[in-house]
């Protein structure tokens, strides 16, 4: 998924259009819920609003405001962590669309979302955000725990970067940092395995990638994006990482590495790849201390 998860191959629907498209695919037989003690309950779309979110659900009644309030708390946490502060109120608000079936979710997100639980979308009109939306496969009851933070990270980042071509590795790498520790660990371990086997992206190849790599290399792309962001954050936190990205977009990566991290791309790549090799080694008591943390500047072979 690209920055803001622009689904440029799809049509951008207004809210009414979105609901109409989803409802077309809804089985009429399920449009009413029979009640043993009375007439059938009508099933329809409902919108529950908070300050910055609109949660859309399909059922007999609106959802409790707890989901929207949970989104608000998560937005605040991510904004403070990534950007150092919370921006003003979102206008437009972020729509969180809870699709009632896999078919409606796949139809809206497209073929690329077949293996996803949620997908974020941010659109801009004349450099201003005109749409924020997260589509959710609500048939997965664990979507709040497994996917919401990842997708909301993309939406929050849009407040920080006015340009809409944020490097792919950075966009996905930062979002993966919002995933569970176990999931992040697996990404890094797989990245280390690729380095050991010589099937990894070279640093310049990854940083300068225009768009997404071929599907056969998606796994390596996501794993290495996660690994490089984790490594960079370990060198000085998110604020330093944001400074690096700003400078790289303005003056190029060579200058950004030298100015922000006081190193050259070649030296950075050497230390980063060495750290991945250490992480990929089999468990060994003599290596446990080194495997638990990134190698400090200047160490490694």
How would you portray this structure in words?
With 301 residues, this protein is an alpha/beta fold. The chain folds into 2 domains: 3-160, 3-Layer(aba) Sandwich (Glutaredoxin), CATH 3.40.30; 168-291, no CATH class. Helices cover 48% and strands 15% of the residues. It has helices at residues 15-24, 66-83, 102-109, 143-146, 148-160, 168-176, 181-197, 203-207, 218-234, 237-251, 253-260, 265-280, 288-291, and strands at residues 32-35, 38-42, 44-49, 53-59, 94-99, 118-125, 128-137. The strands form 2 sheets. A 5-stranded mixed β-sheet has the order 3-4-5-7-6. The protein has a two-stranded antiparallel ribbon with strand order 1-2. A hairpin with a 2-residue loop joins strand 6 and strand 7 (128-137). Helix 5 packs across helix 6 and helix 7 packs across helix 12 (265-280). The longest helix has 18 residues, at 66-83. The model is unreliable at 1-30 and 287-301 (pLDDT under 50).
How would you sum up this structure in a few lines?
The chain is α/β, with parallel strands linked by helices. Helix content is 48%, strand content 15%. The strands form 2 sheets. The protein has a 5-stranded mixed beta sheet with strand order 3-4-5-7-6. Strands 1-2 form a two-stranded antiparallel ribbon.
